Amino acid sequence: MRPDGGARRRTASTAAVVASVTPLTPRMTRIRLTGHGLHGIGATPGQTVKLLVPGPDTGAPVSRDYTVRGYDDAAATMDIDFVLHGDGPAATWARRAEAGQTLEFVGPSGRYWPDPTADWLLFVGDETAMPAMLAMVESLPEHARAYLYLEVADAAEEQPVGTAARPDVRWLHRGDADPGTSTVLEDAVQEAALPPGHGRIWVAGHTPTVHRIRAHLLEARGIDRRDLYVRGFWGTVSPARRSRPTRAVGSGR
Ligand SMILES: Cc1cc2nc3c(=O)[nH]c(=O)nc-3n(C[C@H](O)[C@H](O)[C@H](O)COP(=O)(O)OP(=O)(O)OC[C@H]3O[C@@H](n4cnc5c(N)ncnc54)[C@H](O)[C@@H]3O)c2cc1C
What we know:
Blueprint: E1 13-25, E2 28-34, E3 48-54, E4 61-67, E5 70-72, E6 77-83, H1 89-96, E7 102-109, E8 120-125, H2 130-138, E9 146-152, E10 168-173, H3 184-191, E11 199-206, H4 207-220, E12 228-234, E13 248-249
Parallel strand pairs: 8-9, 8-11, 9-10, 11-12
Antiparallel strand pairs: 1-2, 1-7, 2-6, 3-4, 3-7, 5-6, 12-13
Helix pairs in contact: 3-4
Bound molecules: flavin-adenine dinucleotide.
Flavin-adenine dinucleotide (FAD) binds next to strand 4, strand 6, helix 1 and strand 12.
């Protein structure tokens, strides 16, 4: 459960304006949204918003899930980090975004938050999960023992992880392999020596990959389902829709 006891669920959309577009790495760009409507929405970094971006063909809006990477109520700004992965509607919108453009979104929503009292916390994911992972890790107190396994294309896609908790970060490079085709992430989890004590594990990213990691953690490692949160972020659903969450295990959003 989040420290604020859970967010309000919003179903009406909020209109925002692009304030700035900042490339973070060759394949990841940060878009800062602003607008009066952002005041008081109670977003917390790590929560999810449903962006309404122009769809293919008619341009009718389609919904895509993205993570609140940063939120400033006083300034009425919200940052979202986009993987520029290809020609999906959201990635295309982000690639072409310019200051002054409008964007509607629904949310925020999401109740998952890492338990800072756990003996250790493990976060596993690819680039799409990085905004959520970094937001959660940045929230941890200094004494938290956190481990991050992050799949990215190469060293140019790595981002600074500046947090009080000083997590142990493992960057896993898939190299020239297409996203979703590499086993570097699951191989690393299979080889990981999990620390003793009562840990909590969060896994998100390419859906078939995270499902295989879930199976390994449950079946080969004997992890208790209640200590495991797994969510597919992309890779199995037709581009035409995408508003319902994929299956999740454990407590979470
Ligand atoms: C809760 C949640 C939070 C998320 N947060 C973020 C976030 O903060 N930043 C972010 O970038 N993504 C995030 N995602 C993932 C994002 O919603 C998907 O990548 C989404 O498919 C992108 O939409 P699209 O319109 O660009 O492509 P779609 O129209 O959905 O897909 C088009 C094609 O591209 C493929 N594809 C989709 N994503 C990728 C990818 N990353 N790499 C390679 N191929 C891909 C699809 O399999 C499909 O074949 C999140 C997902 C969820 C469920």
